[in-house]
Amino acid sequence: MARFTLVCNECGRRLDEDRTLYVCPSCARKQEPGGPTRGVLATEIAEEDLPRRWPSARLEDPQALAVFLPVRGPGSFFSFAAGGTPLLPVPRLRRELGMPRLFVKDDTRNPSGSTKDRASALVVAKAIEYGYDTVAAASTGNAATALAAAGAAAGVKTVVFVPATAPPAKLVQMASYGAQVVPVAGSYDQAFELSLAACARFGWYNRNTALNPFTVEGKKTAALEVARDLAPEEPDAVVVPTGDGVILAGVAKGFADLVRCGLLRRLPRLVCVQPEGSGAIARALRSGAAAITPEPSASSVADSLTVAAPRNAVLCLKEVRASKGAGVLVGDEAILDAIPRLAAATGLFAEPAAATALAGLLAALEEGLVDREERVVLLVTGTGLKDVPAAARRARIGPPVEPTLDAVAAALS
Ligand SMILES: [Zn+2]
Question: Is the overall model pTM greater than 0.90, yes or no?
Answer without folding.
Answer: yes
